[in-house]
C-alpha cells in the first residue's frame, strides 16, 4: 500500500505521507530526508530536541538512475510498514462556542467537552464510510485520546452495533455517557480499544482539554483499556502553563515512535486538531506543495486520513507473514544476470576468436 507514510531515519524516527496523493496521476511516493526542526515554526520541534526525522517525496517522472537518490518510485518491505487511520474527534460543544467567541476555550463550562448532537451525526456518517470502504474489518486496534469527545467519537465510529445486555460482554460506552442521549455501544465484533495520553490535545490553560479521573472514564467506557495511563488524576494539564507548539510536536513524534512497539499492522487513532497539526507539520518538506498541504492542513471535525508509517531505522523486529522463501523443494537455480557476469569474466568465446 502506498499512502501518507511516516518513515524513520537512522535514529528510528518515523515519517508520514498520503493515500490520496499516492493514487493521483503524479503518484508521489515517500522515502527519507533530513530535517532539523526549529522552535520558531509551528511545524517544527525545538532546536536541540531528541528527535530528528526524515522525509522525501518522489515522482515517477524522473530517470531510473535517480530513484535511489530520492526521485522516482520507492519500494519498501511490507512487514516494515503500518497503516494508520488518523481521525479528529467530531464536533464538541467547545467548537461551537469557540467559533462564536474564541475566548470560550478559556471557560470552565467546557471542561472535558462532550460531542454535540451534530457531532454524533458526524460520527454516524464516518461510521458508514468506514463500513462501506471495508476499513472496520481490517483495523487491528483503535487508539484514543483519554478525553470525552475523542472516546465518544472512537466508540461511535469503530465500535460494535447496538448493545444487548449480556453478562459476558461489557459495552464500549454505557447509555447516555457524557450526556450523549445515545444508547450503549457494544464491544462485540469490534477491535480492541486502548487510551493513550501521548495523543492528547495541546495541554494546559484550556479547560476543554483537561481530562476527568480515569476511574470516571472506566465507568463510562468499560471496554476501553486504560492500563497504559499511570495516574488517575490529570497531572499533565496545568491551569497556568500552555504546552508550546514545539513540545506538542515532540510529543507527537514520541507517539509515532511508540507505535513501533505495537504488533498491530493497521491502527485507527482518534485524537485532536492541534495534536495532529503540530505533529504532521514536521513532515512533507521535500514533497510537492500540494502533497505537503494534504499532509499538514488542519483536520475538520470527524475527518479521517489514511497514512502509512515506514520503519527505515529497523525499529521494529517483525518478520514478514506473507514473504515465501522459494526453492522448495530445492533445485538448480542460476539467475541469468549471474550467468552474464560469469560470461563477462570468461571473455570472448572460442567460436568468436576463430571467426
From TrEMBL:
InterPro entries associated with the record: His_Pase_superF_clade-1, His_PPase_superfam, PGM_Phosphatase
Gene Ontology molecular-function annotations: phosphatase activity
Highest taxon of the lineage: Eukaryota
Ranges of Basic and acidic residues composition bias in the record: 338-347
Membrane-traversing stretches: none
PANTHER family: BROAD-SPECIFICITY PHOSPHATASE YOR283W-RELATED, PHOSPHOGLYCERATE MUTASE-LIKE PROTEIN 1
Family from the record: Belongs to the phosphoglycerate mutase family.
Protein's job: May play a role in carbohydrates metabolism.
Protein name as catalogued: Phosphoglycerate mutase-like protein 1
Species for this entry: Acer negundo
Biological classification of the source: Eukaryota, Viridiplantae, Streptophyta, Embryophyta, Tracheophyta
Amino acid at each position: 500500500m502506498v499512502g501518507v507514510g511516516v518513515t524513520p531515519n537512522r535514529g528510528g524516527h518515523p515519517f508520514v505521507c498520503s493515500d490520496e496523493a499516492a493514487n493521483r496521476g503524479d503518484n508521489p511516493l515517500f522515502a527519507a530526508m533530513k530535517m532539523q526542526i526549529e522552535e520558531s515554526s509551528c511545524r517544527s520541534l525545538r532546536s536541540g530536541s531528541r528527535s530528528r526525522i526524515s522525509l522525501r517525496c518522489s515522482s515517477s517522472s524522473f530517470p531510473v538512475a535517480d530513484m535511489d537518490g530520492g526521485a522516482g518510485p520507492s519500494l519498501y518491505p511490507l512487514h516494515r510498514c503500518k497503516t494508520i487511520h488518523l481521525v479528529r474527534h467530531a464536533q464538541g460543544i467547545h467548537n461551537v462556542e469557540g467559533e462564536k467567541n474564541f475566548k470560550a476555550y478559556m471557560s470552565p463550562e467546557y471542561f472535558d467537552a462532550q460531542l454535540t448532537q451534530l457531532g454524533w451525526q458526524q460520527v454516524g456518517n464516518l461510521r458508514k464510510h468506514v463500513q462501506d470502504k471495508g476499513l472496520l474489518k481490517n483495523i487491528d486496534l483503535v487508539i484514543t485520546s483519554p478525553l470525552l469527545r475523542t472516546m465518544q467519537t472512537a466508540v461511535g465510529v469503530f465500535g460494535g452495533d447496538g448493545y444487548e445486555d449480556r453478562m459476558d460482554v461489557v459495552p464500549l460506552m454505557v447509555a447516555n455517557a457524557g450526556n450523549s442521549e445515545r444508547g450503549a455501544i457494544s464491544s462485540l465484533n469490534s477491535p480492541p480499544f486502548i487510551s493513550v495520553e501521548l495523543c492528547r490535545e495541546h495541554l494546559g490553560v484550556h479547560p476543554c482539554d483537561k481530562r476527568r479521573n480515569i476511574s470516571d472514564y472506566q465507568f463510562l467506557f468499560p471496554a476501553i483499556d486504560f492500563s497504559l495511563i499511570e495516574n488517575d488524576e490529570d497531572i499533565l494539564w496545568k491551569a497556568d502553563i500552555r504546552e508550546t507548539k514545539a513540545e506538542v510536536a515532540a510529543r507527537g513524534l514520541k507517539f509515532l515512535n511508540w507505535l513501533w512497539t505495537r504488533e498491530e499492522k493497521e491502527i485507527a487513532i482518534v485524537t485532536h486538531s492541534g495534536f495532529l497539526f503540530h505533529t504532521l507539520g514536521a513532515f512533507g518538506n521535500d514533497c510537492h506543495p500540494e502533497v505537503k498541504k494534504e499532509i499538514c492542513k488542519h483536520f475538520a471535525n470527524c475527518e479521517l486520513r489514511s497514512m502509512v508509517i515506514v520503519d527505515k531505522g529497523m525499529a521494529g523486529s517483525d518478520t514478514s507473514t506473507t514473504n515465501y522463501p522459494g526453492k522448495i523443494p530445492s533445485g538448480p537455480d542460476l539467475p541469468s544476470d549471474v550467468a552474464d557476469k560469469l560470461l563477462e569474466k570468461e571473455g570472448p568465446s572460442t567460436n568468436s576468436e576463430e571467426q
